[in-house]
């Protein structure tokens, strides 16, 4: 993770995440540790000012310096605020650049003893935006951010996963994203002899 100053310490705020996919969804789970939750001031497009996370997708890994809106190559930012704690999973309040709120992403946000946890399911087939075909070696642009507001008002701290995003520009510039590569992972063999598989591998 790379902070965009000042980077909070583990006692203040931090996050870890994991990603996995099946044939229909890219599942992203983000575990945020935060000692002061601020989640009622700003919403949707302005939720970055409160405690929230952001997931970034560059569908064709084009790495352009502006958001691409061509069909099948959509770049987008999906913002999910702690304001969603306890709210509807199928219709969460979403924000973000590149029509992130219109991706049809269900999300569950729950409070935890150390902060909050976000689980989101990003559709691999988002009509007019992208349609990923899962196979070994497929790479998309990907990034995760965490916003931290300790005392209301503007955001106080931010953490960024991609080491390329040193100036917090992913909201406008997909060249700051890192890569997510889909690979087949053999997990287990069931009693019928069928191999269960999952997908996704992260690279910075």
Summarize the SSE layout with pairings:
Elements: E1 2-3, E2 13-21, E3 25-34, E4 52-58, E5 75-81, E6 94-95, E7 107-112, E8 115-123, E9 125-126, E10 130-131, E11 139-148, E12 157-160, E13 178-189, E14 195-203
Antiparallel strand pairs: 1-12, 2-3, 3-8, 4-5, 4-11, 5-6, 7-8, 9-10, 11-12, 11-13, 13-14
Describe the model.
The protein contains no helices and 14 strands. It has strands at residues 2-3, 13-21, 25-34, 52-58, 75-81, 94-95, 107-112, 115-123, 125-126, 130-131, 139-148, 157-160, 178-189, 195-203. A hairpin with a 3-residue loop joins strand 2 (13-21) and strand 3.
The N- and C-terminal alpha carbons lie at a distance of: 10 Å
**Major sheet details:** 8 strands, antiparallel
Proportion of helical residues: under 10%
Counting H and I runs of at least 4 residues, what is the number of helices?
Answer: 0
> How would you sum up the global shape?
globular
Percent in strands: 35-45%
Oligomer: single chain
Radius of gyration: 17 Å
Helix-strand string:
EEEEEEEEEEEEEE
Low-pLDDT stretches are 1-7
User: Tally of extended strands?
Assistant: 14
Structural class: mainly beta
Mean pLDDT across residues: 84
Summarize the structure.
0% of the residues lie in helices and 45% in strands. With 204 residues, the chain is an all-beta fold.
List keywords for this structure.
disordered N terminus, 4-stranded antiparallel β-sheet, 14 strands, 45% strand, 204 residues, single chain
